[in-house]
C-alpha cells in the first residue's frame, strides 16, 4: 500500500486507505498492531520508538513484552502454534497472563479492558488487536505498535500472528553496544545477569549482542519482505532520509516532527547526570556517543571480533585485523565453551534452527 496524499499530517479527518473510508480518528479494523520494533538493548530502540511515536497517526508502546510472554507463561506449545500461524483460542488462563503481566501497564490500557475485549472475541490474536486498537484510540491516532528490544527474538511469531504487521530491526555496531551495556547492565538486568559477567563482561556482551542479531536475521524467506533492517549509525547521521525510508516501509507519510521528536520535551534528569543522559534528557539523535576505536582496549576488540566478527561483517561493520593475541584467543575459547552450556544459547539456537527450517 503506497503512502497516500490523503494521509496529510495536518488533518486527522482525512480518509485512510487501510480503514476502508473510515475517518482517521477511528482505529483500523484489523491493521493493528501496525508494526513492531526490536533489536539488541542499547542499539537505539528507544530513539526510534520516540521518533515513530511522534507521528500524528502512529503511537508506539514502549517495552511491554506482553505478547510472547503471556504465551510462554501459559504454555510453550502455544508459542510453537503461534509461530506456525495458527489461531490461539483465548482461554481464561491466557487472558489472566496478559492482564497480570508486570509490564502490562506499558500498553497504555487498563486491566479492565482485557476482560471487556475478551468478552467479545474468541482468539488471543483478536484480544491483542483490540488492545492495540484501544491504545490508538486513547492517543487519538489510527495506528499502534510496540517497541520491545527482545521482540527481535520473536519476529516469526509476531509476523505470523499478525499478518498485517511489519517489523523494524535496528542494529548498532556491537562494540559500541558493549561499551553502553557495561554501564547499563546490573546483576538483575541484561547480560549482567550471567554469572560469567564477573569473569569477562566484554565476552558476554559480544555473545549477547550476537544472539540478538542472529535471531533477528534468521527470518523465514516468506516473511523477509515484512522486515526492515535499520542501522543506528545511519539513523543518527541522516535522520530525515532514514525516517523517510522507514515511513515508506510502514506505509505512512513522513512527518518532520518525527525527526524533531525531542522539541518541547522536558529533561527527566539533571543536566549533570551522565547516566543514560541522551535518553533521560530527551536529546536529539546524537552521533559519537560511544566510540569503540578509542574506548576499547585492543585485546577486548580482538575478543569481541573473535566471538562476533561474523555478525559484524554480515551487518556491514568493519572488522579489525585478524591478528589475535594468545590471551585473547584463550578468552574466546573459554567464553565459547561457557556460552554453549547456557539455557539462553540453547533456546536461541533452537529458535534460529526453527526459522531456517521454515525458509
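^ Assign residues to that structure.
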Amino acid at each position: 500500500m503506497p503512502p497516500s496524499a490523503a494521509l496529510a499530517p495536518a488533518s486527522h479527518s482525512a480518509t485512510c486507505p487501510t480503514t476502508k473510508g473510515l475517518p482517521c480518528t477511528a482505529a483500523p479494523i484489523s491493521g493493528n498492531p501496525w508494526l513492531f520494533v526490536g533489536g539488541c538493548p542499547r542499539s537505539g530502540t528507544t530513539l526510534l520508538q520516540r521518533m515513530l511515536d511522534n507521528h500524528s497517526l502512529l503511537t508506539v508502546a514502549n517495552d511491554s513484552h506482553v505478547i510472547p510472554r503471556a504465551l510462554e507463561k501459559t504454555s510453550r506449545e502455544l508459542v510453537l502454534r503461534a509461530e506456525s500461524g495458527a489461531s490461539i483460542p483465548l482461554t481464561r488462563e491466557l487472558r489472566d497472563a496478559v492482564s497480570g503481566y508486570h509490564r502490562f501497564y506499558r500498553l497504555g490500557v487498563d486491566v479492565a479492558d482485557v476482560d471487556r475485549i475478551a468478552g467479545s472475541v474468541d482468539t488471543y490474536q483478536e484480544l491483542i488487536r483490540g488492545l492495540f486498537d484501544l491504545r490508538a484510540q486513547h492517543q487519538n491516532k489510527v495506528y499502534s505498535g510496540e517497541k520491545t528490544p527482545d521482540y527481535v527474538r520473536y519476529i516469526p511469531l509476531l509476523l505470523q500472528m499478525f499478518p498485517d504487521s511489519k517489523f523494524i530491526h535496528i542494529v548498532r555496531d556491537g562494540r559500541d553496544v558493549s561499551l553502553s551495556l557495561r554501564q547499563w547492565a546490573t546483576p538483575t538486568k541484561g547480560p549482567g545477569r550471567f554469572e560469567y559477567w564477573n569473569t569477562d563482561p566484554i565476552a558476554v556482551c559480544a555473545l549477547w549482542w550476537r544472539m540478538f542479531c542472529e535471531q533477528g536475521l534468521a527470518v523465514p524467506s516468506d516473511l523477509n519482505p515484512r522486515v526492515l533492517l535499520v542501522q543506528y549509525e545511519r539513523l543518527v547521521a541522516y535522520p530525515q532520509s532514514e525516517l523517510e525510508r522507514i515511513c515508506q516501509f510502514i506505509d505512512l507519510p513522513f512527518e518532520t516532527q518525527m525527526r524533531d521528536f525531542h522539541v518541547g520535551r522536558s529533561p527527566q534528569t539533571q543536566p549533570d547526570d551522565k547516566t543514560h543522559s541522551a535518553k533521560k534528557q530527551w536529546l536529539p539523535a546524537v552521533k559519537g556517543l560511544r566510540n569503540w576505536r578509542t574506548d576499547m582496549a585492543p585485546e577486548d576488540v580482538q575478543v569481541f571480533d573473535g566471538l562476533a566478527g561474523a555478525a559484524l561483517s554480515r551487518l556491514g561493520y568493519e572488522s579489525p585485523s585478524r591478528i589475535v593475541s594468545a590471551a585473547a584467543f584463550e578468552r574466546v575459547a573459554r567464553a565459547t565453551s561457557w556460552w554453549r552450556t547456557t539455557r539462553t544459547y540453547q533456546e536461541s539456537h533452537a529458535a534460529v534452527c526453527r526459522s531456517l527450517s521454515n525458509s
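The chain is about 45% helix and 5% strand.
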